[in-house]
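User: Predict the complex.
Assistant: Input components as received:
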Amino acid sequence: MSIRILYFAALREALGQSEESFDLPAEAISLGQLRQTLAARDGNWQTLSTMKNLKAAINQTMAGADVLLQDGDEVAFFPPVTGG
Amino acid sequence: MVEVTVQEADFDTGAELARLAKAADCGAVASFIGHVRQGGEGVQAMTLEHYPAMTEKSIVDIIAQARQRWPLMAVRVIHRVGRLLPGEQIVLVAVTASHRGEAFAACEYIMDWLKTRAPFWKKEETAEGSRWVDARESDDVAAARWGSEVS
């Protein structure tokens, strides 16, 4: 049971990596719980909790913190978008 | 017809609009072209990053919402990525419809949601170094005035 996690733009630079594979725990966790787990890592990972208005997507669709993650999901974390 | 392209190369707005107008029995073509501002705050260039798997999907979703609100014929969106210089074109949104009202409105609607939902990020280069562009609250306000949320 694993997911792929992608990081973009200022968040990618703060973390020093653009993606990783993450093993899900036996009990289902939500997107918000994943974010908390990652933010508790040593180093710059607290950026995941301190970055203003951080956004997230599951399988390329914007998702809220309470959505439960499933095996094979592609999760992405990124700052508010600035295209156009 | 709905056509969305994300590309590094520049685009020929005249050719795109001529093709749209010819393809359908349309009475109105409305378009918006965004450029890199010139001489703004010492910006020498900018680089656009995106989330390839999600970018086109999110724009297609926005266009689908627009088509539910207005009777549109064709919608064409081109968004550039990579390194762009001041004055260069960044984005084209073009809409055809029977009448100008829906063409104008849909063009603005698509652009407003693209600014706040499509996963692009701009990084500006200045003499002092580079910096990520902050999202603007006014863009959220512009999108929110359309009411229903595009996810």
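The first helix of chain A runs from residue 9 to 15.
Let me know if you want any component modeled separately.
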